[in-house]
Amino acid sequence: xxxxxSGGGLVQPGGSLRLSCAASxxxxxxxxxxxxxxxxxxxxxxxxxxxxxxxxxxxxxxxKGRFTISGDNAKNTVYLQMNNLKPEDTxxxxxxxxxxxxxxxxxxxxxxxxxxxxx
Length: 119
What we know:
By secondary structure, this protein is mostly beta strands. The protein has no helices and eleven strands.
């Protein structure tokens, strides 16, 4: 099973980026897809998640109204549209897929993609 992120880069404050996370090799259906970020010197922070089957979405307060998580089941890909980016959004962004196994969830992580917001 593999998750591969893309779409990171350098953007000016107020700009936009769209991150992609392509899933492959999963023998069990993914239950949830998440975006998590880690800024320099800080712990990983939840950003957004969605139920892969039902489409329910959740966001951390600091990105509500600016970021949108969405998915394309046919392409096994989840996206994070990021608008009105701020310097404090600078971080490595990771995709996390969660698969239901027995009574719990097993996490799968991508390698991360760097987002830098700077003028």
